[in-house]
Design brief:
509 residues, alpha/beta, Complement Module, domain 1, Alpha-Beta Plaits, TIM Barrel, 3 domains, 18 helices
């Protein structure tokens, strides 16, 4: 029954016990005859001798200790790989994880961020309130950092008051900056310790990125450490990338993000309207609602600058909801003022389309504002539709059931499958401005635009061209049978008041 690997050692120990007549206590493995499973046992007992003093029997017990051995192994591994105070991974486990992550991301082409944290003012807490308070503070710090991370990320205790965060599978350096900023903000809030209700510390963070700043554990660690010293030199309570340019760009990005998060509340956003015109009659038949931001620091800020930030931070859902409500409110006001009914188009970002309940939002806004559903048009980009075609179809059908119109925006720049496109309940295809810009000088763009018009009509859609600026472009689109257009040749995006004046002049003509 004794496991072959333990057999000789166990036999030798029994021989020693018999020779010395001592009490025996042995641990070894057996192979259980009933099912062939390997189990750990402990054998303990005494040697029984005859009248002449010769060893005759081993008398004792054999007990199954497999669970205890497994628990011991777990405890050994816990001690070897985890910090006993915070229960976070230690340096050894972090090193193993980072090396593995580099191998995975080397094949996948994604980024890894290595964040090294050093607590500011921790030593003064430890010295003034004792090591017990210091230990409690470290445990609370560990919990706060962990709560800010995804399941795929790791935070490890580096030693003393230093921690390391490993962010895997990130798309941009901004993602690392955002997490660093969140950690700095959270750790600057007061901690409640048994000896003191309000203890304030802070943290400085150095960041290195794979593959930009190194391709090994040692190099990334050294560069994060160097970046940490840069952060401390910059005044503590901040983060720094190993690259100075990255640090400046990331900090500017975060400052912009902070201001943007308050833009709706402070009424810094506004909606402009760009007329959409029937190509045959030349009359305004609708308008696209376009959001603008009057930043108190930078002034009028381009959507190309702030919309990508909003999409990364989930602010796009709040901003998109505000634009939809403001557009419908304004549309209802124009109707009440006696202006002719027209279609108002509102953009829906891929993030808003896929990750929020857009149907519930639209239904609520239409009910609250009283704007007619058949005069509202939602513009969805190709990427928003093609992320999950089945889900997109369900959402579009639900929106259509509300009575609104649906358009696919920037058509031709994405990767729409015609097999799916023909099943989507769309009303309009919008030709992207990039295909209009070089008409009539670029033959390829002319052919693409003409093909989109023809294909859209075959599928039963109306076609609208964006970015029309010249008479030559307008004449080409008329020749190809495009239904409508928008662009500077008619009007730039204007305020609600200016747009209403355009409608009044049209009505009087």
């Amino acid at each position: 029954m004794i496991h072959p690997e333990d057999r000789q050692h166990t036999l030798d120990r029994y021989q020693e016990i018999i020779g010395s007549r001592e009490r025996f206590l042995l641990e070894y493995r057996i192979i259980r005859p009933s099912d062939g499973e390997t189990r750990w046992v402990i054998a303990r007992g005494d040697i029984e001798s005859d009248n002449e003093g010769h060893a005759r029997y081993l008398v004792g017990t054999v007990q199954d200790i497999s669970k205890r051995k497994a628990d011991d192994d777990d405890e050994i591994q816990q001690l070897a790989l985890y910090d006993p105070l915070t229960q976070l991974p230690n340096r050894r486990l972090l090193q193993e994880r980072l090396k593995h992550s580099i191998e995975v991301e080397r094949r996948g082409g994604k980024k890894i961020a290595f964040l090294m944290l050093d607590l500011d003012r921790f030593k003064s807490v430890n010295d003034s309130q004792g090591h017990q308070a210091g230990d409690e503070l470290l445990q609370q710090v560990a919990a706060r950092i962990t709560a800010l991370l995804r399941n795929v990320d790791m935070v490890a205790r580096w030693g003393g008051d230093e921690f390391v965060v490993l962010l895997e599978d990130i798309a941009h350096s901004d993602d690392a900056a955002r997490i660093a900023g969140a950690i700095i903000t959270d750790l600057s809030k007061p901690f409640c310790l048994p000896q003191c209700d309000s203890v304030q510390i802070g943290t400085s963070i150095g960041i290195s990125l794979y593959p930009e700043h190194g391709d090994s554990y040692e190099i990334l660690m050294d560069h994060a450490d160097a970046a940490l010293y840069q952060a401390k030199d910059a005044g503590r309570g901040c983060f720094s990338f190993f690259s100075k340019d990255l640090t400046i760009a990331a900090r500017e990005h975060m400052e912009l993000e902070t201001r943007l998060s308050r833009a709706v509340e402070k009424q810094e956003l506004s909606v402009l309207f760009q007329p959409q015109v029937n190509l045959i009659s030349g009359r305004i038949i609708g308008a696209e609602a376009l959001v603008r931001w009057q930043d108190p620091i930078e002034g009028l800020t381009s959507p190309l600058k702030f919309i990508p930030i909003a999409e990364k931070t989930n602010l796009i859902v709040e901003i998109g909801g505000w634009v939809l409500r403001e557009t419908c409110r304004q549309g209802r006001q124009w109707l009440d003022e006696g202006l002719a009914p027209l279609t108002l188009a509102v953009n829906v970002s891929p993030h808003q389309f896929q990750r929020s309940d857009i149907c519930a939002l639209v239904a609520t806004v239409l009910k609250d504002t009283g704007f007619p559903a058949n005069q509202l048009e939602l513009e969805i980009t190709e990427s928003g539709l093609m992320g999950s075609q089945d889900q997109a179809t369900v959402i579009l059908n639900n929106l259509r059931a509300l009575g609104i119109r649906l358009a696919i925006d920037d058509f031709g720049t994405g990767y729409s499958s015609l097999a799916y496109l023909k099943h989507f309940p769309l009303d309009i295809l919008k030709i992207d401005k990039s295909f209009i810009d070089d008409i009539p000088f670029h033959k390829d763009d002319m052919e693409i635009a003409a093909t989109i018009v023809a294909m859209g009509h075959i599928l039963g859609f109306k076609v609208l061209a964006e970015g029309v600026e010249t008479p030559e472009q307008l004449a080409f689109l008329q020749e190809k049978g495009c239904d409508s257009y928008q662009g500077y040749i008619k009007s730039k995006p204007v305020s609600a008041h200016e747009f209403a004046e355009l409608l009044r002049k049209q009505a009087a003509a």
